Amino acid sequence: ANQIEGGASVIDINMDDAMLDAPKEMETFLRHISGEPAVARAALMIDSSNWDAILAGLKNAQGKCIVNSISLKEGPDVFLKKALEIKRLGAAMVVMAFDEEGQATTFERKIRICERSYRILTEAGIEPRDIIFDCNVLSVGTGIPEHERYGIDFIEAVRWIKTNLPGCYTSGGISNLSFAFRGNNAVREAMHAVFLYHAVQAGLDMGIVNPGLLIPYSAVEPELRDAAEAVILCKDPSATERLLEIASRVTAKTAEKEDIVEK
Question: Which residues are paired to 95 by β-bridges?
Answer without folding.
Answer: 70, 133
